[in-house]
Amino acid sequence: MISFDDALARVVALARPIGVETIPLELALGRTLAAPVTARFAMPRTDVSAMDGYAVRETDLREPPFSLPVSGEAAAGSPPGQVLPEGSAFRIFTGAPVPEGASRVIVQENTERNGGSVTFVAPHGPGRNIRALGSDFGADDILVSSSVKLNWRALTTAAAADRDELSVYCQPRVAILATGDELETPGRAHMRLGAIPESVSLGVSAFASECGARIVFRDRIADEPARLALAATRALQEADLVIMVGGASVGDRDYSRSVFGKPLDYVFPKVAIKPGKPVWLAQVDGRLVLGLPGNPTSALVTARLFLAPLLVGMGGGNAANAVAFEKGVCADPLPACGDRETFLRARRTECGLVLADSQDSGSQKSLAASDALIRRIPGALAEHEGGSVSYISF
User: Which of 41, 73, 75, 168 to pair with 282, CA 20 to 30 A apart?
Assistant: First the structure.
């Protein structure tokens, strides 16, 4: 059994990208860039008008009111290269190419159109109302750096680079196997005495998806070694990471460590934390296998602590940043901590962190309301409310 810090360091060291692929821009939301996005051309591609109005030459301006004939018109999408004759104005719209010779755009609110001429009725002010060629970015400029997780803002910028495909890190493929004779599909547990709804693999699957994984399959299997072995073989063939839920302890019917048909190459066999001591991580045939406890809270706490950095790193992100602790204040008294590092479920409020009603490893009611884990070092003494704590989002 190793410490939490040691276990986390080993996870971060293993969490390396599994590959790179090129995908359509429309499918890139949430993916991590493997190469920077560069601009195909400058933007704007030419000088363009920033307002609706009239393009004019500086030499033709006089004290208002004065009039000029309108010699042409330019709208967004018009070809560049039109020429503004001396002594005239060009009707122009926002985003339109500025005709050659024009030095400013006078907004239409300061003008009155009279057939083929326009009268400038108010002072134009100092602004040119022209967006210069390349004033946003130049050709070949890096617009989105590599290793960025693509959100709606980054995707907008990538599209502005005129890119329809992006190079991204591959999503880790994950298979989840939940074991236990007592487990039943949610909605059917009430039909069988002794059954309980199998909730953990659903939560782990949703959590893994949020961390960037692609779930290749999720299965619930009774405590039958032969069936478990078949499922484990399939999982190793189809997934980059196999998650075993339950069967992680040392009972006669705890099979999750033995179904792979060969000794496990442990990264760690268990961790000195509470809840979640039975969590384990190993390598089998070049694949990673993470064993999570069967108790719902233990499983999801350990998923937050170890599965999150593993998936983020495998997907091209910074694994260490996936487990970043913050400082906060606990609004409740803190109990003394035993000989294992302990993570207390809590919720964030304006008054500080409030402890969940139950810290039992099997409790599920408090999960929906808990959004933080308070970290307590082994042997920490009880504290009054208002104490400073280290916590992580949950």
Answer: 168
Structure confidence by residue, pLDDT tens digits, 153-175: 999 999 999 999 999 999 999 99
Q: What single DSSP character describes residue 345?
A: E
Of 323, 355, 371, the one marking the end of a domain is 323
What string of DSSP letters covers 181-192? Answer: TTEE-TTTGGGS
Exposed (0-12), middle (13-18) or buried (19+): which is 153, by Cβ within 10 Å? exposed
CA angle 278, 265, 214 (to 5 degrees): 75
Go through the chain and tell me how many residues it has: 394
Q: Are residues 361 and 319 in the same domain?
A: no
For residue 343, what is the enclosing H or E element?
strand 341-349
In sequence order, which residues have a C-beta less than 8 Å from that of residue 153 and are 6 or more positions away?
Answer: none
Q: How far apart are CA 288 and CA 269, in angstroms?
A: 13
Answer whether residue 140 is part of any domain. Answer: no
Q: What do you get for the CA distance between the two ends of the chain, in Å?
A: 24
- List CB contacts of 358: < 8 A, sequence separation 6 or more: 365, 366
The CATH code of the domain that includes 94 is: 2.170.190.11
CA dist., res. 55 & res. 75, Å (int): 12
Structural domain span for residue 333: 326-393
> pTM for the full model?
0.84
Burial class (CB in 10 A: 0-12, 13-18, 19+), 63: exposed
The domain total for the chain is 4
Position 139 in a domain: no
201, 319: one domain? yes
Q: What is the pLDDT of residues 344-392, one digit of tens each?
A: 999 999 999 999 988 887 778 888 889 999 999 999 999 999 999 999 9
Residue 57 DSSP code: -
Same domain, 303 and 188: yes
